[in-house]
Amino acid sequence: MIxxxxxxxxxxxxxxxxxxxxxxxxxxxELIIRYQHKLFYYVNRLINHPDEAEDVVQDVFLKVYKxxxxxxxxxxxxxxxxxxxxxxxxxxxxRNTKIKLxxxxxxxxxxxxxxxxxxxxxxxxxKVSIEKVRRGMDQLxxxxxxxxxxxxxxxxxxxxxxxxxxxxxxxxxxLINRAKKMLKDNNI
Length: 188
Fold this sequence. Notes:
This protein has 188 residues and is mostly helical. The protein has two domains: 88 residues, Rna Polymerase Sigma Factor, Chain: A (Orthogonal Bundle); 78 residues, Arc Repressor Mutant, subunit A (Orthogonal Bundle). It contains nine helices and no strands. Helix 5 runs antiparallel to helix 6.
């Protein structure tokens, strides 16, 4: 404990939300700390504009703050906040369709996981492969790109993706399989 403030890491998201709703709204900053970077990476992968992604994430937190009392604690908080982020990113894309989408941001996760223990030739081959996957994902229709980002870059379960996109779990599986097939058919 620091002063009169409990260690926020001891609370899961739902417990923290309940504390914010009933006792201390100032602890909303803890939710921002927990989700700001995750949501930025997710939104940026969808819209491919880092400066704009920051603005979208700020809008997400404003909506979360305004609607926190409407959050159903029976649901997973991360799915709820990702759903809001998803909606805000889609709204941004609709408003800014004239802006040419840039390629998906290079995934540090993929590079770090895949690059351990490789020699320089393998490193170069890996970078080429990552770029190829990125270009391939850029070419996917949005509904397929969204599920691939959530599954493989955000590491969400089928159930979480279902909650975020408000589609049945079986549909999520179909979308992921079709996206994989599209990537495979394009030799990615």
